[in-house]
């Protein structure tokens, strides 16, 4: 993206930043042009929003940052902002003479990364490069995760990545990136050139013009946002050439957008504007390569899964079919994305089932009988997402998980499976699905289920933004969610064993990729252990190496773990209230890392309160929880920062 | 003799600027460099053109009291505020702000009054700016000559 801009910039970095300025006021435009040129930026000016949009579409990756006026006759600046956010992932700076709080708030809600009040001063413009770097930096965090997921063949490479990640992490841990923008930006560039180029070259993407988008919005409105499914939208829109996939992915983005707008009143609202962008980005850039990769890797992954599952007599038969099926799905990942929200509606989903239905039904029914398989999958899931296993693996896992999950509470809905499919497209935040999974297991209304992942995503994003530790914490959190899930199932030995195996495997094989994966794997196994007392020992034996690493070097993780364990517990027993939860925390401390347990207490209290109070409204709970995590993790930073990130990798590779 | 003239002109000019403009105008002058020697002139010309267009539109909008589109008016005023503040015409900007709040309240009378004040202020500014630009031109010429002479 910044290949030519920042990449070439070299030492005089901000120079050459490609800025697109949109303002219908030619006087301002001229002044801004001159000012930006003085800043040694490469400026493109444009007095019409529609023209700006077509410029942006023509030259994807042609700009690093967009500065847009708010009031423009042909298109509202917010509209432009929205479209830019939906289609391409660029930092957009709004500007206006109107500096009222309302106007600024509106800009932020729509995802503006900054809001300049006219007259714009030179000093402000000199500093706009920070938004580019910030965005880059955040993206890269996600890229790291998703890259590692992208290809199981890359596992060899993963070690390098782990080093890379840890070096970045080191920098950010201590300084929170503000001081290191330059360096990080360069690193990010390098990192991105590998991963992004292939995807950037091919993108047979539908251009969502204003008209098309309007049609889309009309269709959605007609159906009702909760009931809008890509297929119906597609029918309503009746646009030749448009595929369900296109609609699906756009619908997801649109929902994120709506979510962001509506999220203002929630605690996490401040972070929300940042989130969708990265999401969009991930959609735009990561999907394709990953899907491609899917084709190459799937056989191996399948094989791997089978190998893992062989130990289990009952499930081994079931899971492979799920697996395969999932692969089918994963190759069409984005298609299913929009269903996320669909699930809540709880509508007759069978009709939309499409290709999956047969196999799915088959597998799900069989799965239903054997609940043990679920825990197994779920445990798998966090590991995979956290680690560098192939994308397909993850998506397939998700798919596999979801059908199962859905089947339980809603045996009638093979379609619910789609709900989770949303996640594959959001590969960036792979672990989300777990949350939804967990939610399902708790028998929370499906509705909340669907919203939960979203808010989680928010949290996740913020987490990424704020620090690396957060990301790790997030993974942990996911895996713990598994615990919550497995609990209600009253796990059979079978299931737990599988869990252990999986996590074990992951730790050895894939877990080395980086700290994140580590945390994911560990936490998952831990969750398994905590879920079942007898298995606990078993697990510890198997993963003794991990335990050591965990208890010695990862107080931060432990901490997170506790929190999440706590949370998941809460989820399973909402009516129990605080006392029960505390008890659970106590239990949690039994887990290898006792030291961290104490630290957590304070933060957990908050958590318990928020979640306990509002549990009936899962969405809010989720959001608040997410919020809490954020706090937690940031506060946890100090703890974690004592331990060089390399430590994690080292422990893992032992 | 000519050099002295340039100095005097500069003093005049600065006084004028202080009288009329925000610091922003100074920034405009600083932005003028070799790559765009006529930058200030260019911007000011653009500003005149746009502002007059806006003033015409505003007047047209206020023509009929019953069908006044206050929203559109607000957008025009916002633009006028933006450009005026961008060139440093703070008084014009402030009047625009008052005008806009009148339009937000649907205060037609207030709008009409504001428009008159605005037009008055704008034309005053325009005259002064013309004056300034002329002085500026003379100064450039004078400085050019001075340099030219001193080189010889």
UniProtKB/TrEMBL annotation, chain A:
This is Two-component response regulator. Residues 200-259 form the HTH myb-type domain. One of its GO terms (biological process) is phosphorelay signal transduction system. Residues 18-133 form the Response regulatory domain. Coiled coil: none annotated. Keywords: Activator, DNA-binding, Nucleus, Phosphoprotein, Transcription, Transcription regulation, Two-component regulatory system. Belongs to the ARR family. Type-B subfamily. The modification 4-aspartylphosphate is found at residue 69. It is found in: Nucleus. Residues 187-197 have a biased composition (Acidic residues). PROSITE patterns: HTH_MYB, RESPONSE_REGULATORY. The keyword Lipid metabolism does not apply. Transcriptional activator that binds specific DNA sequence. Pfam families: Myb_DNA-binding, Response_reg. Residues 164-204 are annotated as: Disordered. One of its GO terms (cellular component) is nucleus. It comes from Dioscorea zingiberensis. Residues 166-177 have a biased composition (Polar residues). CDD domains: REC_typeB_ARR-like. One of its GO terms (molecular function) is DNA-binding transcription factor activity.
TrEMBL record, chain B:
Keywords: Cytokinin signaling pathway, Cytoplasm, Nucleus, Two-component regulatory system. GO terms for biological process: cytokinin-activated signaling pathway; phosphorelay signal transduction system; positive regulation of cytokinin-activated signaling pathway. GO terms for molecular function: histidine phosphotransfer kinase activity; protein histidine kinase binding. Its main location: cytoplasm. It comes from the Eukaryota. GO terms for cellular component: cytosol; nucleus. The keyword Cell membrane does not apply. It is found in: Cytoplasm, Cytosol; Nucleus. Residues 42-126 form the HPt domain. InterPro entries: AHP1-5/YPD1 (IPR045871), HPT_dom_sf (IPR036641), Sig_transdc_His_kin_Hpt_dom (IPR008207). Functions as a two-component phosphorelay mediators between cytokinin sensor histidine kinases and response regulators (B-type ARRs). Plays an important role in propagating cytokinin signal transduction through the multistep His-to-Asp phosphorelay. Functions as a positive regulator of the cytokinin signaling pathway. May play a regulatory role in salt and drought tolerance during plant development. Histidine-containing phosphotransfer domain (HPt) contains an active histidine that mediates the phosphotransfer. This is Histidine-containing phosphotransfer protein. It comes from Dioscorea zingiberensis.
């Amino acid at each position: 993206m910044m290949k030519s801009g920042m990449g070439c910039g070299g030492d005089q970095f901000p120079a050459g930043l490609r800025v697109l300025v949109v303002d219908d006021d030619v006087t301002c435009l001229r002044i801004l042009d001159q000012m930006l040129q003085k800043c040694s930026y490469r400026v493109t000016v444009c007095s019409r929003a529609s023209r700006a949009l077509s410029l942006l579409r023509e030259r994807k990756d042609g700009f690093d940052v967009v500065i847009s006026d708010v009031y423009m006759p042909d298109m509202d600046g917010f509209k432009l902002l929205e479209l830019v956010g939906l289609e391409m992932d660029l930092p957009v700076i709004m500007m206006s003479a109107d500096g009222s709080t309302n106007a600024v708030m509106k800009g932020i809600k729509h995802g503006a990364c900054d809001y300049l009040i006219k007259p714009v001063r030179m000093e402000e413009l000199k500093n706009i490069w920070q938004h580019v770097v910030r965005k880059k930096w955040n993206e890269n965090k996600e890229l790291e995760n998703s890259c590692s997921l992208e290809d199981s063949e890359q596992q060899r490479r993963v070690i390098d990545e782990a080093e890379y990640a840890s070096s970045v992490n080191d920098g950010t841990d201590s300084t929170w990136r503000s001081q290191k923008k330059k360096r990080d930006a360069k690193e990010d560039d390098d990192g991105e050139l590998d991963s992004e180029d292939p995807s950037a070259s091919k993108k047979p993407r539908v251009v969502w013009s204003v008209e098309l988008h309007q049609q889309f919005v009309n269709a959605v409105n007609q159906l009702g946002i909760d009931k809008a499914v890509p297929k119906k939208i597609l029918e309503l829109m009746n646009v030749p050439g448009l595929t369900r996939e296109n609609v699906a992915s756009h619908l997801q983005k649109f929902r994120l957008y709506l979510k962001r707008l509506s999220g203002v009143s929630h605690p996490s609202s401040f972070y929300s504007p940042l989130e969708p962008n990265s999401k969009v980005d991930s959609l735009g850039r990561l999907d394709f390569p990953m899907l491609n990769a899917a084709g190459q890797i799937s056989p191996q992954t399948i094989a791997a899964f089978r190998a893992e599952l062989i130990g289990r007599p009952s499930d081994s038969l079931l899971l492979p079919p799920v697996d395969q099926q999932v692969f089918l799905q994963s190759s069409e990942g984005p298609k299913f994305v929009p269903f996320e929200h669909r699930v809540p509606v709880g509508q007759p989903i069978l009709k939309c089932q499409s290709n999956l239905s047969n196999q799915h039904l088959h597998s799900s029914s069989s799965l239903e009988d054997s609940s043990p398989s679920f825990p197994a999958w779920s445990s798998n899931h966090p590991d995979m997402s956290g680690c560098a296993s192939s994308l397909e693996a993850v998506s397939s896992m998700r798919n596999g998980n979801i059908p199962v999950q859905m089947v339980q509470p809603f045996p009638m809905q093979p379609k619910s499976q789609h709900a989770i499919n949303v996640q594959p497209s959001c590969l960036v935040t792979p672990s989300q699905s777990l949350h939804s999974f967990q939610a399902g297991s708790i028998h929370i209304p499906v509705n909340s289920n669907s919203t939960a992942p979203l808010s989680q995503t928010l949290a996740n994003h913020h987490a990424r933004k704020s620090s690396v530790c957060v990301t790790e914490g997030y993974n942990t959190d996911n895996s713990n969610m598994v615990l919550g899930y497995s609990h209600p199932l009253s796990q059979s030995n079978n299931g737990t064993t599988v869990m252990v195996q999986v996590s074990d495997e992951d730790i050895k094989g894939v877990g080395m990729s980086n700290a994140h994966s580590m945390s994911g794997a560990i936490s998952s196994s831990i969750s398994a252990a905590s879920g079942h007392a007898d298995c606990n020992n078993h697990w510890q034996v198997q993963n003794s190496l991990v335990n050591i690493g965990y208890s010695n070097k990862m107080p931060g993780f432990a901490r997170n773990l506790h929190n999440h364990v706590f949370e998941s517990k809460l989820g399973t027993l909402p009516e129990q209230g605080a006392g029960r939860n505390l008890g659970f925390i106590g239990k949690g401390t039994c887990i290898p890392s006792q030291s961290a347990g104490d630290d957590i207490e304070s933060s957990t209290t908050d958590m318990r309160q928020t979640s306990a109070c509002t549990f009936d409204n899962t969405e809010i709970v989720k959001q608040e929880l997410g919020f809490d995590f954020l706090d937690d993790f940031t506060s946890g930073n100090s703890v974690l920062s004592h331990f060089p990130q390399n430590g994690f990798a080292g422990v893992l590779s032992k | 003799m000519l050099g002295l003239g340039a100095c005097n002109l500069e003093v005049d000019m600065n006084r004028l600027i202080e009288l009329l403009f925000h610091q922003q105008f100074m920034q405009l002058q600083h932005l003028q460099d070799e790559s765009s020697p006529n930058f200030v002139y260019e911007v000011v010309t653009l500003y005149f053109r746009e502002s007059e267009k806006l003033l015409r539109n505003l007047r047209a909008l206020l023509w009929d009291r019953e069908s006044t589109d206050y929203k559109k008016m607000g957008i025009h005023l916002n633009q006028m505020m933006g450009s005026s503040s961008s060139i440093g015409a703070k008084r014009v900007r402030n009047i625009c702000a008052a005008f806009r709040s009148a339009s937000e309240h649907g205060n037609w009378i207030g709008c009409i009054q504001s428009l008159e004040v605005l037009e008055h202020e704008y034309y005053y500014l325009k005259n002064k700016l013309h004056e300034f630009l002329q002085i500026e031109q003379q100064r450039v010429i004078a400085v050019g000559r001075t340099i030219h002479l001193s080189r010889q």
